[in-house]
Amino acid sequence: MPAVFVLMTFVALAAAPQPPPPAPSMLFPGLAHLELKQEGVRVWYPQALATPVKRPAAYLKAYEEAGVYASQPLALELGHGVPKATLTCDSGPSADPSCRLLADADNPDSTLFESSGIDFVFLANAD
Prior knowledge:
The chain is mostly beta strands. Helix content is 8%, strand content 31%. It is built from 2 helices and 8 strands. The model is unreliable at 1-10 (pLDDT under 50).
């Protein structure tokens, strides 16, 4: 039985470079911007509904000892039945940043929201 060979040719199309996506500050004007450089995270939030955290939770010291940058910069009052939540962000153990909203700043198990990523936008209407 004769062997059949199929020759497939792939043509790579040179696509025009795409512009970067707009920064959240362009999409959501009026939000304050916070850059947590050590954690590798950018946060946009309604400044009128935020208060600075005066004393970070004690458990964050264990993160630092493990070589992970972590902070609790803000408490957010987003309304709509969502309790006042403390924003907690960390650089992750292998440069995989994440942020959480905690119902109790001193209890990492009181998570209301958690996501990995580098850009976080919190709107005044809790969306």
